[in-house]
Amino acid sequence: MLVILKENAQEVGKEAARMVASAVRANPKIVLGLATGSTPLGMYEELAVLHRAGSLDFSKAASFNLDEYLGLAHDHPQSFHYFMHSNFFSHVNFSPDKIHIPDGSIRSNYSEYCDGYERSIKSAGGIDLQILGIGRNGHIGFNEPNSSLASRTRLKELTRETMEDNRRFFPPGAEIPECAITMGIGTILDARRVLILATGKSKAAAVAKAIEGPISAAVSASALQLHPEVTFIIDEDAAYALTQREYYQRVLELTKKYTPEKLA
Ligand code: GLP
């Protein structure tokens, strides 16, 4: 596990975009796992800038989004479909048939649908690079505390805390969805490489538990300790509760010196 400490959210976004861009250039047919939320917005903006400048081509890439609210149509302004199209896909050149986002508008046969999503990931060759944010309660995707560490794509009930955290994206008085379709922790762990981003003090406790705490279903992100290729990119505020910051800094310098390709 590599921990990259950056001064602020903007730098986190830039570093993440740099890593994604270099992975796309190295493998134009890359399969990306994508996340929503405010944290990766800077990364998406930066990737769009690189694309407009002519230095980044997504035409052969494929993507699978982590999750979607259940009950929201694709064109609902708070749906993750809408989020992804307005914040990323409309600014870059993915081929529309290679974009996959769970369909929150389904009304039945949930497990068949979710099994199908898993099958599409497999038939695309698996996810090469998974981008993640983290919830205040340590969730990744919508894998709320006590999700099985072996879970696959499924329907998941949201905690009150998550519903409240996401209220800011909805107009005042609007009902917040109570369930979502989310890739499971097992699905995420199957990705070849994982980049997880966190910014702000409100994430500090979750980040510390994910990186330094015991592996526990109580903190879904702690399962990433089982993955051999995980990079955390976090800002000073999100790093606040970590006890080993100087060591992470040293590891980073040594990694640059001995295995720089790992960082590319
Ligand atoms: C939602 C998403 C997660 C995201 C989390 C944090 O619950 N399902 O994928 O990581 O929110 O969001 P934010 O980045 O806005 O803090």
Shape: globular
Strand order of the largest sheet: 1-10-9-6-2-3-5
Order of helices and strands: EHEHEEHEHEEHEHEHEH
> How much helix, percentage-wise, in residues?
25-40%
Largest sheet: 7 strands, parallel
Poorly predicted runs: none
The total count of strands amounts to 10
Distance between the termini: 15 Å
Overview of this protein structure:
By secondary structure, the protein is α/β, with parallel strands linked by helices. The chain is built from eight helices and ten strands. The chain has a seven-stranded parallel sheet with strand order 1-10-9-6-2-3-5. The chain has a three-stranded antiparallel sheet with strand order 4-8-7. Bound molecules: 2-amino-2-deoxy-6-O-phosphono-alpha-D-glucopyranose. 2-amino-2-deoxy-6-O-phosphono-alpha-D-glucopyranose (GLP) binds next to α5.
Question: What is the gist of this entry?
Answer:
This protein has 264 residues and is α/β, with parallel strands linked by helices. It has 8 helices and 10 strands. The strands form 2 sheets. Strands 1-10-9-6-2-3-5 form a 7-stranded parallel sheet. The chain has a 3-stranded antiparallel sheet with strand order 4-8-7.
Topology:
Blueprint: E1 2-6, H1 9-26, E2 31-34, H2 41-52, E3 62-65, E4 67-69, H3 80-87, E5 99-100, H4 110-123, E6 129-132, E7 154-157, H5 160-166, E8 179-182, H6 185-189, E9 193-198, H7 204-212, E10 230-235, H8 245-258
Parallel strand pairs: 1-10, 2-3, 2-6, 3-5, 6-9, 9-10
Antiparallel strand pairs: 4-8, 7-8
Helix pairs in contact: 1-2
